[in-house]
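Quick one before lunch.
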Amino acid sequence: MTLIMPRRRFLVGAAASAGALALGGCDRLVESDTVQHVLDLAEQLTMSAQRALLSKTGLAREFSEADLSPTFRSNGTSKPDDEDYDALAEGGFVDWRLAIDGLVDRPQNLSLADLKLLPARTQITRHDCVEGWSAIGKWTGVPLGAVLMKSGLKPNARFAVFHCADEYEKTADGNGQYYESIDLIDAFHPQTILAYGLNGQDLPVANGAPLRLRVERQLGYKQAKYIMRIEIVDSFNQIGRGRGGFWEDRGYEWYAGI
Ligand SMILES: Nc1nc2c(c(=O)[nH]1)N[C@H]1C(S)=C(S)[C@@H](COP(=O)(O)O)O[C@H]1N2
Ligand SMILES: [Mo]
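Model of the molybdenum atom complex:
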């Protein structure tokens, strides 16, 4: 019953809209209370159907300034052991560029200034590391979706891979470079940002300067620091050991949603 009634109302609403169009003006029809009521019900139904579908992409909790951790600790690499990175850091990252390539229409090379020209988002969220600690920080950056709109995506694009400046482990197969990946649903999630600020300051080197990922509904190891390049791919079989990330290659889950 609850399923059938809204469906009928929805159909009536749709018919009413079509009728309004046929008459050449919606305004006259929606002046009638009954028609307005039917249209309202149709809109509510559409919205709840949308929300039901979108629950998988719900928002991570956001906190207030009062909840901020006094310090946001560093974990994993706290400074890449890399000469090129050192030179960039010494120059205040003025010469750093974010490469975006792979399955894109327009490969990009973006400076920090370019990224700061795009609309920014600030969010206070809790970071949860699988090693058993959490911290609440205020991140500022540009929504990844906005950056990907600049490059455009080829029809077969499926994942964004974040290549980092740090080699976390020296390995015989040379696959010790830190990297991570997310799918396009997470890439376009409104809280997925490329952060260049932490707690109102420039992002510290210890936390991933000049740019790190915040993909808020996932665990700490997904939050790639020291991003140098974003590669758009249809599969990550050929990257690292093929599991989608440095820690995934060592047994962690690729989807670390909480
Ligand atoms: N490039 C890079 N990104 C990384 C890591 C790393 O070692 N290198 N460590 C990950 C882990 S396990 C965690 S918990 C967070 C730590 O972020 P923080 O240093 O800002 O606390 O970064 C993640 N991203
Ligand atoms: Mo972590």
